[in-house]
Amino acid sequence: MKNVKMGIIGLGAEGGLYAGFLADGKVKGMVIGAICDIDPAKKALCADKYPGIPFYDNYIDMLESGDVDAIVTCVPHYLHPEMGIEALKRDIHALVEKPAGVYTKQVQELNDFAATKPELTFAIFFNQRTNPLYQKLKELIDQDEIGEIRRTNWLITTWWRPQGYYDQSEWRATWKGEGGGVLVNQAPHQLDLLQWICGMPKKVYANVKYGYQRTITVEDEVTAMFDYENGATGVFITCTHDVLGTDRFEILGDKGKIVVDDSKRITIKRLMKPEPEMSSTMSMQDVMKIFMGQSASEIYSEEVLEFESVWGAQHIAVLENFAANINDGTPLIAAGSEGIHGVRLANAIHLSGFLGQEVEIPFDEEQYVAELNKKIEEEQQMEVSQ
């Protein structure tokens, strides 16, 4: 097995993390081929920290250098599709960071181009899909452990960010720089997991608040309601101003319920009989026992599964899986083409907020881009007036 020479584009928090893992030999089948960053200060840092590793201030030059077999895009979201396409054009494998892009139209262009290069590896960095807890949750749902889904609820507010976080740079938390707030920066993994495990809703109605508790132009509070094809409903709530944040994911089925707490514990309550059968066959005397809490053990069984997540292990797993796919065709944890689903869900929530109305999925992609451009224009006008 050869070592894949990885080109890291962007040496910020994520790029620095991956460079450290590779330099320390923690990723089987992969080494650092080169590093690229437009910040001149990063060149001196790399010379000191990663001696002998080629450094570029232009990613195209890196792609054409012969120093890399693959790249990972640790750059602002708008650039992910462009960089992915440019790499694939030059027969270089592409691992795109989440989200795959800001809007579905640009992500589809990446997917379409990648489809013309089936011999290359194209993946997206959905490291939460390697989390044993969420793998187990998907297995439970796929194996019909709680029956047909009736409702999903995910309250994920563990993203507390103080004002100083947003004031670090001008591009952060802007429509022009990031393409949104909590939906595109903090919560993409949850949006991916939600649709990966429970399926994509058909309709979205969202209450989206922009600069609600922070001095920013993008969303820092979201409450979205979903309708699914089978009539099930869902709620997704997220924000960046809850310093006592909650992470609770609940899935109700007609044969039971699963509750995930803090992404560490799964509680499975399996009904002895499906709820429709209980409803049609139980006497009111038996029903009263339920109301009085006298027959819980006769109604359902309970199983609790505890999980521990080793810091960094999920990221290393994605990098190793990417290298293994290049080397021997090992199936990808998340093919690059799957990145569009979470972007589509985020776009639908945004569009509902922009328009103040329910949005069907699929939606008008041109309309989304037009509304996004309006937000960018308003933002620029605010900057001028200030």
**Outline:** globular
- What class, by secondary structure content? alpha/beta
What are the secondary-structure elements, in order, as H or E? EHEHEHEHEHEHEHHHEEEEEEHHHEHHEH
Biggest beta-sheet profile: 9 strands, mixed
How many helical elements? 15
Instruction: Kindly provide the name of the CATH class of the largest domain.
Output: Alpha Beta
Terminal CA distance: 57 Å
**How many strand segments?**
15
Tally the structural domains: 2
Radius of gyration: 23 Å
- Unreliable segments (pLDDT under 50, ≥5 consecutive)? none
Helical fraction: 25-40%
Mean pLDDT: 96
Strand order of the largest sheet: 14-13-12-11-7-10-9-8-15
Looking at CATH, the homologous superfamily of the largest domain is Dihydrodipicolinate Reductase, domain 2
Task: Characterize the structure shown.
This protein is an alpha/beta fold. It has 2 domains: 4-128 and 312-335, 3-Layer(aba) Sandwich (Rossmann fold); 130-308 and 343-381, Dihydrodipicolinate Reductase, domain 2, CATH 3.30.360. Helix content is 39%, strand content 23%. The protein contains 15 helices and 15 strands. A 9-stranded mixed sheet has the order 14-13-12-11-7-10-9-8-15. A 6-stranded parallel sheet has the order 3-2-1-4-5-6, sandwiched between helices. Helix 5 runs antiparallel to helix 14 (339-355) and helix 6 packs parallel to helix 9. The chain is globular.
